[in-house]
Write a structure and sequence with these properties.
With 340 residues, the chain is α/β, with parallel strands linked by helices. It is built from twelve helices and 13 strands.
Length: 340
Amino acid sequence: MRIAQISTNTIPVPPKDYGGTQRDVHYLTEELVNRGHEVILFAKKGSTSNATQTFEYESDDPKEQLDFIIKNLPPDVDIIHDHYGIVAKANPPIPTISNSHSKGIKGNVQLRVYVSKFILRKYGKQKGYAVHNGIRLEDYTFTKDKQDYLLFMGRLIKEKGVHLAIKVAKKTGMRLIIAGTLNDKTYFNAKIKPHLGKKISYIGPVGGDRKRELLANASCVLFTSTWDEPFGLVLIEALASGTPVLGFKKGGVAEVLKGMPQLLCRTTSDMAMKVKYRKRLPAARECRRYVRDRYSDSIMTDRFLSLYQKIIDKRLYKIKKNTLWNRRKAKLLAAPKEMG
């Protein structure tokens, strides 16, 4: 199969540190190529992958990026997998899916894919499909021997509930390491900074070996989001490292941890109690096996390939004439003639 993967123009593929969407694009691209499929990747400058062809955006303007894709997309592509949104909205004459890595999908899009059944139900109104994120287990360090600290990993914003992770740490008396990008200074100064000291520390954003070490060595990861989390990649990253992760029943969290309901919490007191009795939580090998059986890059690729084939075989994508894609393509073809 000849597949075009459309990434965003924010972070290269694969990302060095934070970048959930780009990591999904990377894992999917690599796994598809390994299986003998031809993959054409459109991504930000600096991207490195084993895609059959990689085209790096030459502009930061979405309109110019769309034109760039139209000009460079090879013929006979079977399906376009749009993680960005600019292609699906243009309705090209090739089956195209729009993959939201957050919540809703706006615009005139035919085929929508969400990262959880929860988001499909609440924000997609059951119109579309759900395919869970997947990760490569080999990219995560595994250890059974844990150190005596709790870990919060994510963006430092109110919706991620960093202040609640601090509350849990104080209830247990355990050390808490906070790692992530500082996106809201007002929130940080009011709710996080006053609590920093010997027991609670903020180490900034992390990636690579440092991220793997933190995830693998933590006694427990605290996932304290208070918003409708679409999926929660940190959940499976922690489990892949053999580390139990405790989360509130918000958004897709309950869905991701469905097979390990003992990791779901109602309140900070409930979470603190589970931290104190963490020996009752799933063992390291059980955590890693859970990801291998449900959320590996191989399983994610299986599900997308199945969806691709279904769309093509059942002709679920309608080819339209008067579309933005066709209008832009006609203008691009006419441009040299107009100049002559």
